[in-house]
Design a protein that fits this description.
This protein is mainly α. 61% of the residues lie in helices and 5% in strands. The chain is built from 25 helices and eight strands. The longest helix is centred in the middle third of the chain and has 30 residues, at 209-238. The protein is globular. The chain starts with a helix and ends in a 13-residue tail after the last strand. Residues 567-576 have a biased composition (Polar residues).
């Protein structure tokens, strides 16, 4: 066998069995229910409107230019639609491809950074696929997993190969450009510190500082040029307001809380320590594995270049993202690969330098095992606890018919985690992955009906097909656009006067409301009502709602409203 053939064979063997296992589980989970409001439905709404109106340069949502996002993900969705037609299957398969690519890139990065420790190369993708939050969020049709691919690919360009120490600067710049076209300037924050601190972990950077920083600046300039090649013509095409938001407001408003802007901005401000508080949840199940904490706590010099790389990446990036006002859990998703590299590298050093701690059962996975057994007991007892509606929880009462089946699964996972012996990390990984799939399946069986907006979307689509105007009270997030294949914007009504004016101008129009509780009047005069999250979506004839808000009695409708699902009406007190 030739050298190249042998290397390819080694790479393929390295992908087994974690890549096919993750792919099968991800496909099962992502197709267990439809696209999730509001994350996936908003992305699909933008892609659909661009497709329907032939806006290939500027993203649009509800008839307006959408400055919140850049277009690479939408273009990739469109590529599949050109080949297979408009559907929601291709975007979900695309997310699975992104997730599998992330695992492969992490494995390759571990191989470059830990050439003398093959255990890290094997462990890192297992640990990443086990992170429950990353797996569940990866089921959303969103930008962060593609961004994580761009980040890992760019950092892979910086990592030395056995026969080439100098980074691949051209590819580094192109991947920076791809990341910028995926999520905007935040791409630079994810890759800045591994490059800026290169001499601390990379021998070539330490010996050739001028070339490292000079060519790095040129590569970043290439990435920015790719972004500007889209942004400048898009800014002129989208108009002055879009151009202002694109080049200033949508970035500055996330970095600094209180920036003035003329339209609502998805800034999500939180205090400095918000990420630190939620980090154990983001890194679960390994945050509940004592051996991981022991490995981090016993890190001592000399450190592998891979561990130094992870520290140079994670610590300053974490502080920077904590300083930035806008915070969401998924903003840190591109760093999850770095956390698994750090954990895997630390555990590898623990296995070599402190064998007693590496083999100590009390630092093993038993806390996770006990937690799984206790959760199984709770699920088994849930039908008793849910009797008589004593828990006052729609989720608990909905889960009760299925809980005992899932209790058996979590009991088995608990037993797997309590086993002594080798393969502990893989047992934790498999239990984390299967447990996340089980929770997603339980959600599908119990709560998905409160997120499935198909009935309301179908009614709105039929109304627009009849040239009837549709409005929503408050803000509209695009949740009906793709499912209903809507061709017209939905008007946002932000005041009582606007509602009355719309009803007067469109006597055959519809108005969508989001009440916390379903009032008796909705069961008499509305067209449709369905639960949505912890509230309701109600679709009204515009004149009927306007009369009710003005204190008048509407005309009796020809037929009663449709309520979905009828079995849940009593749980919400929805009785006429």
């Amino acid at each position: 066998m030739s050298t190249n053939s042998y290397r390819r064979s080694e790479v393929l063997r390295g992908l087994w069995p974690w890549l096919p296992l993750w792919t099968l589980v991800a496909l099962a989970a992502i197709f267990s229910h439809g696209p999730m409001p509001l994350y996936s439905t908003r992305t699909l709404a933008v892609a659909w409107e661009m497709w329907h109106e032939h806006h290939w340069l500027v993203p649009y949502i509800n008839g307006e230019p959408y400055s919140e996002k850049v277009p690479l993900l939408f273009w990739l969705i469109h590529a599949g639609w050109f080949a297979f037609g408009v559907n929601d299957v291709w975007p979900r398969i695309l997310e699975v491809i992104f997730g599998g690519t992330q695992l492969v890139l992490l494995s390759m990065l571990a191989r470059r950074l830990f050439p003398g420790r093959p255990w890290v190369v094997k462990a890192a993708p297992w640990m990443l696929l086990a992170l429950s939050y990353a797996f569940l969020f990866g089921l959303q049709i969103m930008y962060e997993v593609l961004l994580a691919d761009c980040v890992l690919g760019a950092l892979l360009c910086l990592a030395p190969k056995p026969h080439r120490a100098e980074p691949r600067w051209l590819l580094f710049g192109l991947l920076i450009g791809a990341g910028l076209l995926t999520k905007g300037p935040v791409m630079l924050l994810h890759i800045a510190f591994p490059w800026l601190l290169g001499p601390l972990w990379n021998d070539w950077a330490r010996e050739h500082r001028g070339r490292w920083y000079g060519r790095g600046v040129l590569a970043i300039a290439l990435g920015l040029a790719l972004l500007l090649a889209w942004a400048i013509p898009a800014g002129f095409s989208g108009g002055e307001a879009y151009r202002h938001r694109l080049f200033f407001t949508q970035t500055a408003g996330r970095v600094v809380n209180g920036i003035q802007h003329d339209q609502p901005l998805q800034s999500h401000p939180h205090w400095f320590g918000w990420y630190l508080i939620w980090l154990p949840m983001l890194l679960f199940p390994f945050s509940a594995w004592p051996r991981a904490w022991a490995a981090l706590g016993t890190l001592r010099r000399p450190l592998d270049s891979g561990v130094r790389f992870a520290l140079c990446w994670l610590l300053p990036s974490f502080v920077l993202f904590s300083v930035i006002s806008g915070k969401q859990w998924y903003y840190l998703l591109p760093e999850f690969g770095g956390w698994t590299l750090l954990l895997a590298g630390a555990i590898a050093l623990l296995r070599e330098r402190r064998t007693a701690l590496a083999d100590n059962y009390w630092l093993g996975s038993w806390p996770l095992g006990i937690g799984s057994v206790l959760f199984a007991g709770l699920l088994f007892a849930l039908p008793y606890l849910a009797q008589g509606h004593q828990l006052h929880s729609a989720w608990a009462e909905g889960a009760a018919p299925y809980s005992r089946t899932f209790s058996v699964l979590f009991l088995l996972l608990g037993g797997l985690l309590l086993i002594r012996g080798r393969g502990e990390m893989r047992r934790v990984a498999v239990a984390g992955l299967v447990g996340a799939l089980a929770l997603n399946t339980l959600f599908t069986l119990t709560l998905w009906h409160k997120y499935d907006l198909a009935p309301a979307s179908a009614l709105i689509s039929a109304a627009q097909a009849e040239q009837r105007a549709v409005a929503v009270e408050g803000n509209y997030e695009g949740q009906f656009h793709f499912a209903g294949r809507l061709g017209q914007p939905i008007t946002e009504l932000r005041s009582p006067a606007a509602l009355q004016e719309f009803a007067g101008q469109h006597p055959d129009g519809l108005i969508i409301t989001h009440p916390e509780e379903l009032a008796p009047s909705a069961l008499r005069y509305a067209l449709l009502a369905q639960p949505f999250r912890s509230s309701w979506v109600v679709v009204w004839p515009a004149p009927a709602l306007a009369d009710l808000r003005a204190g008048r009695t509407p005309a009796e409708p020809a037929q009663p409203p449709r309520v979905f699902p009828t079995a849940t009406m009593t749980q919400y007190g929805a009785q006429p």
